[in-house]
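Example record

Each entry pairs one chain with its bound ligand, pyridoxal-5'-phosphate.
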Amino acid sequence: MSAPLRPTWCEIDLGAIAHNVRQLRHLIGPAVAIYMCLKGDASGCGAAEVARRAEAEGVDGFAFGNIDSALACRAAGIKRPILLYPTCLPDSAPLLEQAELMPTLSTLGDVVLWDRAARHRLPVFLKIDGGGFRAGAFPHEAAAMARAITDSRHLRLAGVYGHPMTSYGFDDEPYTLAQLDAIKRALAAIEAEGIEVPIRMTSSSAIVLGHPNADLNAVDPGRLVVGMSFQSVAKRHASWKPALVGLKSRLVMVRALAPTDDLVRAPFLRLRPNMRLGLIPFGWSDGYPKSMPPNATALIRGRRVPLLGPSHSELLRVDLTDVPDAQVGDEVVLLGRSGDVAIQIEELAEQWRMSTHELFPAIGKTLPRRYID
Ligand SMILES: *Cc1c(COP(=O)(O)O)cnc(C)c1O
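Structure tokens for the complex follow.
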């Protein structure tokens, strides 16, 4: 495939992924498996590239919310086990067997459908609903579900996992603890039946960092590994590096606004003496805020310049008055470094009035990505 011609891109630092995997490994120790969650195309960082780097760094498996994304990763050569969260249909069973992807089952009805659809002996995960009321068997159903899977003709129990709801703004510690307790009760009930559960996990990013005793024998954080920040207990403090390190474009137009009486007065533009305007091919279609942030700036030739609203679908105006040497093709930095100045992810998030958690997927979804290491 030829490189994209569009001169706007984001930059993903795979070295940050490797660093974060090592930090995580150090915190949880060698005996706990890492099933890195790559939902949302690894939060906009690109699942296949992130998986390749994480696999090289010793991640034990991956988890996806999107079967297409998981298949693309297999096609890209990812070898480790892959778990699919409950986001595909039993019809896909033959394809899953072929690509070695493991689906999630939540109900006895699921066991019947998947057992009928599978041809060989498909490894599956049983999900426990610890009180989030999404997918998963409730604790009192867990042992019977696990038994139905082990008794089936075409399924094999590869693991059991839960996913306590956190980071939805509840900040309700008793609720988190109750969910963890429910998941552990379900596991105990399964094991009391003498059923072996190879992989047992319930730790997304917030749980890994906030509840070290929930590690079980595997964890499945995602956003933490791409470098989003979470609260952590002292025992789980570490330095995490954001993998999203750049958002850049190039000037596709530069023009001087000659002072003539002939110019229409636009209600949004305050004309300055010797004003120069530039354009970059980036706008709200690619995640830029639709309502122009009042303090929006970018960096050109090591200098900070204002962006001038309104923002457009695929264009933004840059005020180049203070950078008279700016030319078509010059790099315009919205996130990252230009000479001695830099815009960090926290500053960009503040300009866009988003959290850094929202910024990752907002930026990575449509733009071409360039990987650095
Ligand atoms: C999304 C998800 C995770 C990972 O969550 P992060 O907050 O990105 O760490 C883990 N487990 C399950 C079941 C999930 O759906």
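The domain at 244-372 is CATH 2.40.37.10 (Lyase, Ornithine Decarboxylase; Chain A, domain 1).
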